[in-house]
Amino acid sequence: MNKEIKEETKICSPLGVRGIELLSPARDLECGLAAINHGADAVYIGASQFGARAAAGNSMEDIEKLVQYAHQYRAKVLVAVNTVLTDDQLPGAEKLIGEIYNVGADALIVQDMGILKMNLPPIALHASTQTDNRTVEKVRFLQNVGFSRVVLARELSLKQIAEISSQTDVELEAFVHGALCVSYSGQCYMSQANCGRSANRGQCAQYCRLPYHLLDADDNLLVKNKHLLSLKDLDLSDSLEELMEAGVTSFKIEGRLKDADYVKNITAYYRKKLDAILEGTTRFQKASAGRTTFFFEPNPEKSFRRGATDYFLHDRKPDIVQMDTPKSLGEPIGKVTYIGRNFFEVQNGMMLNNGDGLCFINKHGDLTGFRVNRVERKQIFPAEMPQITDGVMLYRNQDQAFERVLKGKTAERRVGVEIFFKETPTGFSIRMTDEDGISCLHETTCDKQPAQKPEAVTDNIKNQLSKLGNTIYEAKDISIQLDSPWFFPASQLSDWRRQAAEKLDKVREEAYLRVPKREGRPADFPTKQLTYLGNVTNKQAETFYREHGVEEINPGFEVKAEEDVPLMFCKHCIKFAMGWCPKEGYKATFKEPLYLKNNNQLYELTFDCKNCEMRISKSDE
Description:
The protein is 22% helix and 27% strand. The strands form five sheets. The chain has an eight-stranded parallel barrel, surrounded by five helices.
């Protein structure tokens, strides 16, 4: 058939309901692609420099590839440039931000207010959780000076989040899963003070994950060699709807140092949770396009996990710390019920597989791990028999079968399209319309030949037009309007379908709009004075704060380390965790102050019981 092509495009606006975003981490391009394929509405990734995870930098080429892939699904790419900067780093950071904008990224996650004094492209700004966003006043200030989104402190309760939301009009992002810092983000200086590795520059040495002795003022040992600052991992998967109602728009998974298997599993887990909620409401909708089909059952207990806590979302709880180990315990299997010469039996032992990794806390309080050599009914034969006793709780921190599943095809994401095949006076047309109302018309001029099997024409057309497997699309509905049953070679229909899909690709790419930078307006910072906690490490940041009413500005800790100041500010309280809270009626049998000791390093603890906070400072005693 000779043909002549005509094309038409049409773009429709989506419904005006509030979008809910699942935001996944991307250590690298592989992780970013995995996140999109498993249902993320957005990913956050570090650039080559100035990210709060120094070990997770990426080239501009990889970020551009991720942007191009994500935007097909209307998913966003947020780039973290969220360290504090020195004066000599400002030019390089400004150049980098320009490059980030030029490759199509949707937003910039920043901590350093000096960035707002740069000659910025019109890219949306998100205030990192490192800017310590705990109050209405702070969030409102960030909103007023030009931030489109504020990443909330992890320590906030539902009530506090709702209060912030009700008094601001900026998007709110909240962490829902992953590792927790024991100190308020942006307010931890222990790593910088001890070894010159600044958490505010992406180089945290994780002193919070070390074991400590807890001593009283008389040097009595209250707790021996426990991980008293190592928090369990956050898991708010049962509170997503409450968070939506409280005003959260973006649900963030922590993990820019995690691998692709972690990203697949946890993203899929939250995608399924959110979809179940969104199906039952008309007030919220998914923030991106496409339906994700999973070929495995996600389970967060099978990825790196230090236990689970909802932290302070529903009031304070004592069991937010995993004191025995900072490592991943994995999923609980059950207690050991019998020990043989070279095997043992355990509750739920039938769940285990050859090659699994198991672990338990031994009688000395240490984590002991071993590999399963083989499983015979209830009998577990380790590769090397551990020193294990009856009644010990056993965990699986490596599921061999589950890991094999994750290495295969685990998900498929498709954008739904409606296809309308119509006869025209000079040939035929195909209109493809995606789920956002974006459409294209592909018209052909050709000869028409009567079909020898008229009854098979409709099925033949539908069969050929539905073969979208080599595209990102899936046919949700195919309508056909013909004046007569014509003959269509399969190759011809296939060619028309391919050309129509390519045209839709192009139209959708051209239709993608980035949210521009929010315009700032005059606003006074909530306080007139900034101590080292303001993290002001360059002249541009100092100028910014002075322009917004701050009169006294001390340099950040990375510029000038102060003596005898707290190095950590924590909502977690050791006294509460141990059952020693005076507000709960406990009468102390020890003399304060209390101290943490690791090797020869001593830290003094002070407690602000009015605000339920704990502070940690170096001690010279």
